[in-house]
Write a structure and sequence with these properties.
The protein is mostly helical and about 180 residues long. The protein has one domain (about 15-180). It has helices spanning about 15-35, 35-40, 45-70, 70-85, 90-115, 120, 125-145, 150-155, 160-180, and strands at about 155, 160. It has a two-stranded antiparallel ribbon with strand order 1-2. A hairpin with a 2-residue loop joins strand 1 and strand 2. The longest helix is centred in the middle third of the chain and has 26 residues, at about 90-115. The radius of gyration is 18 Å and the shape is globular. The chain starts with 12 loop residues before the first helix and ends in a 6-residue tail after the last helix.
Amino acid sequence: MIDWTPQIGDPSVMGWVTVALYFFSAIVSFKVATSAAALFAPETRVRQKQFWLFMALILFFLGINKQLDLQSLLTAIGKYYAHRDGWYEHRRAIQVSLIVGILLSISVVTAWFLFYTRSVLKSNWLAVLGVSFLLIFIMIRATSFHHMDILISTTILGVRMNWILELSGIVCIGYSALFSNKKN
């Protein structure tokens, strides 16, 4: 049996603030995507719409994942099959392969997306910076698996580094979406 129950992944005030920011920024990004015809010049309209729709989808998924902790479900499923099928003692090699695969997939998709939307990157540099913060945060979390990396667990003046990385990324994207205009 898979040892996982749905529960709130981060019930702290900062966890809920983070989720609220994810969803707010996703909604604003979606609004920009659906208003692309009014906001952007004809030559960049389609790419802007695609860029902001992609931002909205990423933010929405990350907001859901923040509280449902879906990576724990995947870990529980993997552990179940590892025990059931007798390869639990080899789990470290499989974890490393999985992490490398995730990092490569994120890198390839990011590179493709940046290339595909290159005509609108200059006008959306703040959102690109925000996504970069989020990708760094996700990659650090993915490579840490069960162990918090030293960088993420660092606290400066009562502020955790993971809050800085994650919230900075979300705020950069949301701010960029809020202030998108016809100059783009």
